[in-house]
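R.M. (postdoc): so does anyone remember the format we settled on? I'll just put the structure tokens first.
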């Protein structure tokens, strides 16, 4: 089991729930916009939000945003160690740095001392574009060089007494990403931040992250995730929630089972499944709902569903745990089925 690390008001690692992260596409110094974004994304299931810090206004803005939101805020720092110090002073709950690009030993020590004084964690790691040259030369571009490069950065911080560390070894290649996390999980017990970097736009990006993140979590590897997408942060959060729900690691979401349909389907099953998905999107209760194409085998195939519907030529049936409880005309099914959903969540 990984080590437990405190980030703001939550923990990651140590068997805690897998935390969903995202990163804003704008500057935190736009304080009102940042506050509204955090509040919105929290409603969608966000646990941790990250912001790039490019100047002093960004660094100071953390304290202003934290007055209105209660999710942990992470400062993403590159090149300027002084911005890391200012972000820590400004109230960031966690720092993301690469010790190798913030200057010499004295700069790293200054950041390490500030982290210890503020008692906040740091994320370090590598991706396929930032592998240390020594490891590329020794191993080539593979999971070993990717992971060992991250471990070198960890060792630098450990040298200066930093113990609350989260590690990432991201790649845009799914197979490489999986191998790198499997490798590093055997080398350390620090919490691991999972993600497929530069995954692309939403459709293909979600597929790549689902394979990479999902397969690792099912092996017991990983403590926090970010589904990196070329899309708005809300899409990352929804995707992260969906991935965790699909592998039974998200206990406050509706799970919908929907029939792909075939020639036996005589009602608008696919369209109705979409309506059910939209109706339940904001519900935070672990119930399973089935929308099936036909009465022939619908209730039987979805007998473990808390609530289900199946259609036929003469109408629809509503069933609970595989047992039919009501027969409904097709034109009334939405009204009647949504009533049953409301009963389930009361």
């Amino acid at each position: 089991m990984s080590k437990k690390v405190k980030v703001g008001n939550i923990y990651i690692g140590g068997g805690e729930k897998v935390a969903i992260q995202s990163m804003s596409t704008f500057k935190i110094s736009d304080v009102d916009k940042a506050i509204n974004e955090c509040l919105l994304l929290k409603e969608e299931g966000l646990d941790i939000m990250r912001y790039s810090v490019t100047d002093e206004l960004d660094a100071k803005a953390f304290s202003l945003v934290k007055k209105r939101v209660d999710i942990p805020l992470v400062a993403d720092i590159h090149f300027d160690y002084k911005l890391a110090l200012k972000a820590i002073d400004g109230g960031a709950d966690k720092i993301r740095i690469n010790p190798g690009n913030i200057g010499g030993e004295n700069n790293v020590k200054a950041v390490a001392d500030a982290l210890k004084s503020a008692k906040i964690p740091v994320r370090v790691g590598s991706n396929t574009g930032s592998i240390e040259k020594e490891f590329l030369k020794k191993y080539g571009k593979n999971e070993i060089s990717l992971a060992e490069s991250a471990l070198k950065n960890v060792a630098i911080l450990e040298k200066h007494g930093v113990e609350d560390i989260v590690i990432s070894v991201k790649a845009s290649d799914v197979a490489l990403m999986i191998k790198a996390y499997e490798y590093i999980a055997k080398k350390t017990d620090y919490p691991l931040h999972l993600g497929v970097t530069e995954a692309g736009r939403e459709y293909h990006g979600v597929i790549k992250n689902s394979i990479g993140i999902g397969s690792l979590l099912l092996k017991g590897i990983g403590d926090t995730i970010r589904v990196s997408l070329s899309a708005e942060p809300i899409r990352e959060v929804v995707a992260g929630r969906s991935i965790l729900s699909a592998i039974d690691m998200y206990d406050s979401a509706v799970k919908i089972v929907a029939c792909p349909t075939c020639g036996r389907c005589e009602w608008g099953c696919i369209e109705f499944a979409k309506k059910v998905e939209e109706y339940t999107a904001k519900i935070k209760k672990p119930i399973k709902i089935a929308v099936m194409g036909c009465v022939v085998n619908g209730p039987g195939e979805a007998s473990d569903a808390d609530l289900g519907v199946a259609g036929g030529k003469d109408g629809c049936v509503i069933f609970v745990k595989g047992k039919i409880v009501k027969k409904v005309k097709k034109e009334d099914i939405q009204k009647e089925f949504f009533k049953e959903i409301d009963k389930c969540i009361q």
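R.M.: ...and that's the designed sequence above, right after the tokens. Also worth knowing: The chain has twelve helices and 15 strands. The longest strand covers residues 122-127.
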